[in-house]
Amino acid sequence: MPGPQVTAGGPVRDDHPAPLSRNEREAPGTTGQGPYLSVVVPVFNEQDNLGDLHRRVAETLAPTGRTWEIVFVDDGSRDGSLRVLAELQRKDPEHVRVVELLRNFGQHPAVFAGFSVVRGQVVVTLDADLQNPPEEIPRLVDALEEGHDVVGGYRKEREDSWFRRAASRIVNYLTARATGIRMRDYGCMLRAYRREVVDAMLGAAEISTFIPALANSLAKDIVEIEVGHAPRLRGESKYSFWRLIKLNFDLMTGFSTLPLQFISWTGALLAVAGFGFGIFLFVRRLIIGPEVEGVFTLFAILFAFLGVQLFCLGLLGEYVGRIYSEVRRRPRYLIRRVIDG
Length: 341
Ligand code: UDP
Ligand code: MG
Prior knowledge:
This protein is α/β, with parallel strands linked by helices. The protein has helices at 47-61, 81-91, 107-115, 137-145, 162-179, 195-203, 211-218, 241-255, 258-287, 295-327; strands at residues 37-43, 68-74, 96-100, 122-125, 150-155, 191-194, 222-227. Strands 3-2-1-4-6-5-7 form a 7-stranded mixed sheet, sandwiched between helices. α1 (47-61) links the parallel β1 and β2. It is elongated and about 90 Å long. The N and C termini lie far apart (59 Å). The site of uridine-5'-diphosphate has 16 residues, from β1 and α3.
């Protein structure tokens, strides 16, 4: 008889005490000594921007009298970013925290990593490239304090290429359809969230996701305020054509079953058209007589079958889609508080 089946690299889960929870912080609302505001910044090869960013955030937040921290998430940078961040942390240990990821995971997973360690009641996300002016943070926080759950930034004058703007228009349209929440600018990462919303996002189990859309599907009171946008001065955009396409696919499949429904509808239409054509041929035969060699009848039958097949495929897809949304295990409901007694 082999002994207990614990081998190196084998399944060890059952033999551990409790698995580490993904969210190792205190429950919301109980952060005793933590700062009030946490700024989360994903960093991927941004060494020339980080010093300025830290200085501008500090200069903006110092006069507001709020306690704050800035959580830099180094997303596997290959330049000197990590060194610069470590230096900033050494100089300003009270405010700067650095999370280093094992490799490059992408902007949204990096922000998630930041979320998992924030201590503040209010969480602001910001790009590292200074395209989102840090000077806007107090306005976002003010708006949140008026009672909203999520405050999104909306870039009126956007300083990006037309290609980048066109891609964003598609994203905005699809996300608005999928989440049912119309926002003018889903791509803007200059946003503020209540801690409860951040905790809810951490509770969503899917891996590919798009933070602004996820937040909107988990929060009730969402507003958008206009924020400035600057051109990128140093470093280059990390979003190539293919990365943008991948992001859009994450968004489309992550937040809607629209593509699957499209197959069903095409199938249904084809089937109806084929069937209709068959009836037309039948009536025509009664009135005018048979057509040449029955070729068109064959077409009608073909289309009808093709349609039925496609429809079934779509139906199958519908189920797969449902399984997919189940395995993502998003929280079914979120209770803000219970009033009784
Ligand atoms: N970013 C990241 N990991 C990546 C790609 C980007 O952490 O794999 C960060 C990047 O450092 C920046 C932010 O995400 O802080 C936005 O990236 P970028 O400015 O390149 O995007 P764009 O402004 O072109 O949308
Ligand atoms: Mg940018």
